[in-house]
Design goal:
The protein has 224 residues and is an alpha/beta fold. 39% of the residues lie in helices and 21% in strands. The protein has eight helices and eleven strands. Strands 2-1-3-4-5 form a five-stranded parallel sheet, sandwiched between helices. Strands 6-7-8-9 form a four-stranded antiparallel sheet, with helices on one face. It has a two-stranded antiparallel ribbon with strand order 10-11. The radius of gyration is 19 Å and the shape is elongated.
Length: 224
């Protein structure tokens, strides 16, 4: 399943692409409205994440042009603007949904899945497995060796982020960008609070600390 991200904030675009790629999507990224229109017009995408404020051609015009050409690909618009007028304008051009920055990766991912379901697209597998741990991203439930583990919404989001890239170390900044939002300016050590909670509930051996980098989810060599 192919997604196109048209976003001129390169750090944000790269962060979103990394997370969505880890979930099984084939993701292309462009940073200019004209380039985005050209890519989208070539077809083959299941969904487009489209920023409003773009160089070359703004997102409203890109969306309007695609719809005028009869392209019905689902479009999720992103903008730093706020207010009912901006949202109405985005929807009037033919966008299917609208998300105002800053937003969390979890919310973006949920909106993408909802749009894909609404338009009959097939989603990537919703159950992630690491050793005896299963993370059902659709039902928002976690089981360890067949026994359900009850997590808070934020604990689940952190675990889901790690489970999407098992064995790969994610930094605190990566997790903050994905789970909180790209504009979060609080104490990054808040991530440690949720990592500690997950270790207590799942078993410490599932989450390794990678010195100087961050954390990774692994299959324990020995059950804790």
């Amino acid at each position: 399943m192919r997604l196109l991200i048209v976003e001129d904030e390169k750090r944000l675009a790269q962060s979103l692409a990394a997370g969505l790629t880890a979930e099984g999507y084939d993701v292309d990224v462009v940073h200019d409205g004209l380039d985005g229109l050209g890519k989208a017009a070539a077809g083959g995408y299941d969904l487009i994440v489209l920023d409003v404020m773009l160089p070359g051609m703004d997102g409203f015009r890109v969306c309007r042009t695609l719809r005028g050409a009869g392209d019905d690909v689902p479009i999720l618009m992103l903008t730093a603007m706020d207010g009912e007028y901006d949202e109405a304008e985005g929807l009037d051009t033919g966008a299917d949904d609208y998300l105002t920055k800053p937003f969390s990766y979890v919310v973006l991912n949920a909106r993408i899945k909802a749009l894909l379901r609404r338009h009959g697209r097939t989603e990537p597998p919703s159950v992630l497995t690491v050793g005896g741990l299963t993370v059902d991203t659709a039902a928002r439930r976690v089981h360890r060796d067949g026994t359900e583990v009850v997590l808070t919404a934020r604990e689940f989001a952190v675990l889901e982020d790690l489970a999407q890239q098992p064995g790969t170390a994610l930094s605190k900044r990566d997790i903050l960008d994905h789970i909180w939002d790209s504009a979060y300016e609080g104490d990054p050590n808040i991530v440690e609070v949720y990592i500690s909670a997950l270790r207590r509930k799942l078993g410490a051996a599932y989450i390794q600390t990678v010195r100087g980098t961050g954390y990774r989810l692994v299959e324990p060599r020995h059950e804790p």
